[in-house]
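User: Um, any thoughts?
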Amino acid sequence: MKCITNLSFTLPKATIVVLIALLAIWPSSEGQIRSPLYLNELETLVVRTTDGLSAQFKVVTVTTDADQAQGLMYIRHLPIDRGMLFSYSRSQILSMWMKNTHVPLDMWFVDDRGQIQKVATHTVPHSLDSIKSDTPVRAVIEVNAGLSSLLGVTKGAVIDHQVFQERE
C-alpha cells in the first residue's frame, strides 16, 4: 500500500479570494436563508392612505415567538414590494429594535381595526434603541425605509389584510 505524505496543490488567486469571501459571509447568508421572510407563505396586504391612494405588498405574517424574535434580522436585501407583518394575540404597547438588521426599515404600528396608529421612518440598522408604539396596537408592519413617505402612509392609513378581518 502506497501512502501519500506530501500532497500539495495550488489554486488560482481568484478562487482563493472567492472562497475567503464566501466564508466571510456564510453566517449572515445562512441567517438570511433561514429567515421567516423566505420560509413562510407570502400574503397580500393593501395599505390605503388617508388621501385615498393604495399600495399592495406581499408580506409574511409572523405569529410565533421565534419568528417574531428573528423578524428581518440578517436580511441584506428586502424587495421593494415585500414586508413582514408581526401579529400579536392582544393589543399592547409594542417595542421593536434593529439588532442584526441590515436593511433600514419603516415600521407601521397597527390597531385591531387595521388602522395605523404610528409610523416610524428610516430606522437605523443594527440599533438597539427601542422603537415603541404610543398606544396599544395589535401588529407591526415592516417595509423598506422611505416607502411611507413615498406612498403617503401616515397615522390613520388603513391596512387590508386577513389578520384584521379575522378580528372584526
In short: Confidence is low (pLDDT under 50) at residues 3-9. The chain has one domain: 13-165. The helical segments are 13-33, 36-39, 65-70, 147-151, 162-165.
